[in-house]
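This part of the workshop introduces the protein records we will be handling. A record pairs a protein's sequence with a compact description of its fold. Comparing a sequence with its tokens is the quickest way to learn the format. To make this concrete, we reproduce a full record directly below:
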Amino acid sequence: MNGVQAPAAGQPLLLGVRHHGPGSARAVRAALEAARPRVVLVEGPPEADPLIPLAAAEDMRPPVALLAHAVDEPGRSAFWPLAAFSPEWVALRWALEHGVPARFIDLPATHTLAWQRDEEEEEEEEEGEEQEGEGEGQDLGEGAEAGAAQDALDAHVRIDPLGVLAETAGYDDAERWWEDVVEHRGAGKGDALAPFTALEEAMTALRETYGSGGHGRDLIREAHMRLRIREAQREFEDGVAVVCGAWHVPALRRRAGVTADRALLKGLPKVRTDMTWVPWTHRRLSRAGGYGAGIDSPGWYAHLYAAPDRPVERWLTKVAGLLRAEDRTVSPGHVIEAVRLAETLAALRGRPLPGLGEATDAVRAVMCEGSDVPLALVHDRLVVGDVLGQVPDTVPAVPLQRDLERTRRRLRLEPQPDERELDLDLRKETDAERSRLLHRLRLLGIDWGRPAVSRSGTGTFRETWRLRWEPELAVRTAEAGVWGTTVPAAATAKAEADAVAARGLADVTGLAEQCLLAALPDALPVVMRVLADRAALDTDVARLAQALPALVRSLRYGDVRGTDTAALAEVAAGLAERVFVGLPPACAGLDADAAEEMRGHVDAVHSALGLLGDAPAARAGRLRTRWRAVLRTLSARDTVPGVLRGRAVRLLLDEGELAREEAARLMGLALSPGTPPADAAAWTEGFVGGPGGGLLLVHDERLFALVDRWLTAVPAEAFTDVLPLLRRTFSAYEPGVRRTLGELVRRGPGRHGRTDAATAGAPGFGPGVDETRADAVLPVLRLLLGPDGEEEAPAADRAAVRR
């Protein structure tokens, strides 16, 4: 057997590996090539056995993962990721290439998913009743009771086997220890079984010391593995090879009775389970939580597995190529010096070959000039990487997934692991369809894309999305499959169900907006009926005001997408009328926090009514007229908090419904000596707070003088009370506005809004028009607006422009 010592008669060939270890992967291939087994058994869920032949498909490209989900509850799922450098993947590929049967032997996923369910139910029960001592064995049978009891007994000694071995060898980093003893020692060369023999001896010592190491359920998994190994031995005799985690090898080597193993498996809970292959990513492999594999450097591991020789030199050349692509000056000399430095560091640290740490230190010192900024790019792009796997079209999938794949390909939307921006012009049919698909997926909880602020322009005809495909979206798609077999049908059914189940009016209005964005006309009747019912019964003005802007936005979206929004317009108009009636009494007697919240609702309603446009013109005009009357009522009522009265005056002034003289009169009344300082400060915040407030003070001397006079008259004992409110108001202005206001304060306007002898010469405070300053603006205006067609700009003006 080419120098390979065969296992003892009747014993399987146990190849203990580190999951996702490139050294283990190379050693597994070498051992299988030498031993030539008749069957290969791999740690994994047996339900995936029918999927193994797909691993040989031409369009199957790792990283991929086995996905198991409960048939009746698709959101309950589990993944088994495999990369090109995973020993299990290498074993499967070897078996398929050599026509050797391959099988999975781990505990079936039907039990794994049932354990998940029972754990969640038990946690909820413990949180609600706070009862201790209720183990998982109540509903799991004898075998599960044994596992739960072992978990409880060993929880305090839960160990990381590689971490213990590294610490025993004097290493403080398990990754570095593994690289030194496996990756850099030429695993698989010479005696192909030597690495596995050494690991088995080490793991046997650990199991003798720590037992299950706090992983009590491993006992049940190992019992199932032993039973499957016995079945293979009866069928293939001595030609059985097993690829599993090195931690399990001592337990699989141990002789245990069939009766005892079956007793451990008796009474395990079950759920109906489906399995398939799904694409995976290197970035997901690097995550320890969730469905990740906890690999710090999958890109580095993939490089180690793929590099035929000189891995450090090849790696640093790859790093240099990346940095040059980012416009950094990196020459071949840099690469040579970086290799020398990495080798020197490895020698100083007593390592057989430079590892990732030495390579990273060399890149930082030589190629990045000591900076960690470009080094972060190297880590993100190469050490981790954005490699996305691929699975063939023949893999099992729910009908919704099939429809999504067909639609995605027709619209030329490729899933990518790295985030990218997608700008859509909704006037183009393809972009409009892309928008509808992404909105439908969001409604189904499949967040492939998230809306973003457009940098290519504003308006309702443009959308910008941030797209990023995550492996978990495969689970979301399977879960959404209960709503329908196509994306439009599933989104429609989900929208109708969400409308009926919605608790608040704002939730329903938001749903109506989503339906219009997603072009779901069949869902709108149900959503609109629920919306009309909720709006008719809701008496909370704040909730009504919160719901109106979403409806108005929906009307605009419907106009862009050619959707009939007549019913929506009627509901929006009725909602606005109810806001007009209820707002004045709802604003009376509010405290400071409630008044500030109501101011936000007032601003939102004002903006929404401004977006109504002229369709239908009569209705829109009547609503805006009613709204101005409401603002006048708010501005004049003493029972309304100052921040709301000031805001109403400001909105009327901006709309041109209030003369500046009248606004100055109302401001003078609000800032009169008889008004409490706190109320006057609140009125000021409402009036000059928000966008444009600072410019209003800059360009209106009378208003600025009123604020200046009031501030100088605030008593010292009250000034500290109003200072936080004033600081919040003025700190929101743009830096240029604040600077101009500071200059005006330094120069000082005339008292009572008029200039006096002291300020008559100050720019901007003269009694009439400053013709010199006005003439200086004319050349710039001519340059911006162009010639008027009658005569060209005077030479003096052109010279002034050039200056």
Remarks:
- Residues 109-129 form the longest helix (21 residues).
- The first strand starts at residue 13 and ends at 17.
- The CA atoms of residues 53 and 422 lie 37 Å apart.
- The radius of gyration is 36 Å.
